[in-house]
Amino acid sequence: MPYPEKKGIFPHKRIRKMTIKEAQEAVDQWIKEYGVRYFSELTNMACLTEEVGELARVIARTYGDQSFKKGEKPNLGEEMADVLWVLICLANQTGVDLTEELQKSFDKKTKRDSERHKNNPKLSEHQEDKEQDNKN
Question: Global pTM?
């Protein structure tokens, strides 16, 4: 059964764990009930780009050299959820099963990269120590 279980009841204060499929169903139900219809694919692609930019801004200010401007907050999770929301919208409106595609991605990456990263000297466990030594 799609989440949420009752029409008209969307979680504003409560969230339970859900599968990717349930998330796709919940977004679809929300769009049908509150959003009237999906934006066009092109509009949603622009929205996705905008949301990724907002996520990049928070990461730059949290982990990079920039500081937050007055009134900005470190809302990393919120921005990630916004990216996921629009990505799910795009998947729904183009008929993509994200669970199936994510499994294909795991399979592809495992086949292609199963030894690659293990053998990458840049990723060795002592890389951070080497970088610190170079700074001193």
Answer: 0.79
Q: Are 44 and 93 in contact (CB under 8 A)?
A: yes
82 close to 44: Cβ distance less than 8 angstroms: no
**At which residue do the structure tokens 């729904």 appear?**
92
Residue 10 and residue 4 in contact, taking contact as beta carbons nearer than 8 Å:
yes
Closest C-alpha among 41, 34, 43 to residue 9: 34
Q: In the 8-state DSSP scheme, what is residue 114?
A: T
- 63-78 pLDDT, tens digit per residue, is 999 999 999 999 999 9
Q: What angle do CA 116, 122, 128 make, to 5 degrees?
A: 140
Q: 115: helix, coil or strand?
A: coil
Distance CA 9, CA 27 (A): 13
CB 28 within 8 A of CB 37: no
Distance CA(66)–CA(68), nearest Å, equals 7
